[in-house]
Design a protein that fits this description.
Elements: E1 3-5, E2 18-20, E3 29-33, H1 38-58, E4 62-67, E5 70-76, H2 82-87, H3 98-108, H4 111-114, E6 117-121, H5 127-133, E7 138-143, H6 148-155, E8 163-167, E9 176-181, E10 184-189, H7 212-226, E11 233-237, E12 240-244, H8 251-267, H9 271-274, H10 284-294, H11 300-303, H12 321-328, E13 334-338, H13 346-353, E14 356-361, H14 368-377, E15 381-384
Parallel strand pairs: 6-7, 7-8, 13-14, 14-15
Antiparallel strand pairs: 1-2, 3-8, 4-5, 4-6, 5-12, 9-10, 11-12, 11-13
Length: 392
């Protein structure tokens, strides 16, 4: 297939819309079901690059959940704990492949942002993964292949209109890429920079102890950032990106945004949240919304008299600020990547509040010394990668 007509561009008034290969070659993907939209394909092609790169660098399967051309979550295929199964609405006895675990973690990192996502899988979609995707609100999925039964499951979504794309895993883009803005053509070299452990060699802090698990998490954070709208930082815990601060104009603002997302993820592990007495008929999307309110400053929106009865069998006890602080203080060892240098130590101070112990950033600020001092004050390990990872 050399081109594919789309319903419209970014918005319904932007017609006609299509994707095609300028060199008259074949498109590197095939639509096995449904019709992708303009933004769907932007998500799909960026997401595929992320999971492909992460698998190559980390040596295990990877999945990501994309929304508006940035990842809401990304994760490697590590086993799920019992707590995670509760957080992600997965039955205790459900058998999960490594790919299914990766998808569950990617979707579960920020379930609010993942609502209506586009999924990318590094490997052939198996039945276990398809069954997890089936009940979620999602626009589509891209993978290098599908088991027959898995494809049949996915084709049932959205009344048969769910978008299923198959990507050619051997496809390599041209070394020069182009796009138009306001009738002006931009041209640049394709960003084929490889992210691996060699990037973490330049440790600039007093603490130089960088365990293998931390190296893996820093690599995942940097690969995630490579395909995230800049400015951005990415918090990673145990092979799972749990806080992505995409598209902020200020570095400290994206550090705060991503840190708040990471905090919310960790607060969802608290027993008060895991044991919320939801009514059986409450849908998982409404549960996610209620949990987000319950752990946030808008808790009264779900706990006020006359409101909680629609969600819960009994009125939950408030989740106090002291309880939240005590819970978050028990988490350390998080990794933080940044797509550009930190200009001030305030970013490190904010990261420390979310349990960050390991940092990777390009370096090169006139205030690098201040940032290093902030890391040393918290006994963090920080690597200067020397490589900016802006993406637009």
């Amino acid at each position: 297939m050399k081109e594919l007509a789309l319903k419209y561009g970014c918005n319904p008034n932007q017609k006609p819309s299509r994707v095609y290969m300028e060199n008259n070659g074949e498109l590197p993907f095939t639509a096995l079901n449904g019709t992708p939209g303009f933004i769907n394909l932007l998500d799909a092609l960026n997401a595929w690059q992320l999971v492909k790169s992460a698998k190559e660098a980390c040596g295990t399967v990877c999945a990501t959940s994309f929304k508006h051309v940035s990842p809401a979550g990304a994760a490697l295929g590590l086993p799920l704990s019992g707590i995670e199964r509760k957080m992600y609405h997965i039955e205790e006895d459900a058998e999960l492949s490594p790919l299914a675990c990766a998808y569950a973690k990617a979707r579960g990192a920020d379930r609010m942002s993942s609502f209506g996502d586009f999924i990318a899988l590094s490997d052939v979609c198996d039945v276990s993964t398809a069954r997890l995707i089936q009940p979620e609100v999602s626009d589509g999925v891209i993978a290098p292949g599908y088991e027959e039964e898995a494809l049949a499951i996915l084709k049932q979504k959205k009344k048969g209109a769910y978008c299923v794309l198959e990507i050619d895993p051997s496809y390599k883009p041209d070394p020069v890429e182009r796009k138009q803005v306001f009738g002006v053509t931009f041209e640049q070299g394709y960003n084929d920079f490889r992210i691996d452990e060699a990037l973490l060699a330049n440790i600039v802090t007093k603490n130089r102890n960088l365990p293998d698990a931390a190296r893996r998490d820093l690599i995942l954070s940097l690969i995630t950032l490579k395909y995230t709208q800049s400015n951005s930082v990415c918090y990673v815990r145990e092979g799972q990106a749990i806080g992505v601060g995409a598209g902020q104009q200020s570095r400290i603002h994206c550090t705060r945004l991503a840190g708040n997302k990471a905090d919310n993820f960790l607060l969802r592990r608290h027993e008060k949240v895991l044991s919320l007495p939801f009514r059986e008929e409450v849908r998982r999307q409404d549960r996610d919304n209620a949990i987000d309110l319950y752990i946030g400053p808008e808790a009264e929106d779900v706990l006020a008299d006359g409101r909680w009865e629609a969600l819960f069998t009994e009125r939950p006890a408030p989740f106090t600020e002291d309880e939240k602080k005590a819970h978050l203080s028990g988490f350390t060892g998080l990794a933080l990547g940044s797509d550009a240098f930190f200009p001030f130590g305030d970013n490190i101070e904010r990261a420390a509040r979310s349990g960050v112990s390991y940092v990777a950033q390009p370096g090169g600020s006139v205030r690098d010394d201040n940032v290093i001092e902030a890391c040393d004050a918290h006994d963090m390990v920080m690597c200067f990668t020397g490589m900016r990872l802006f993406h637009h």
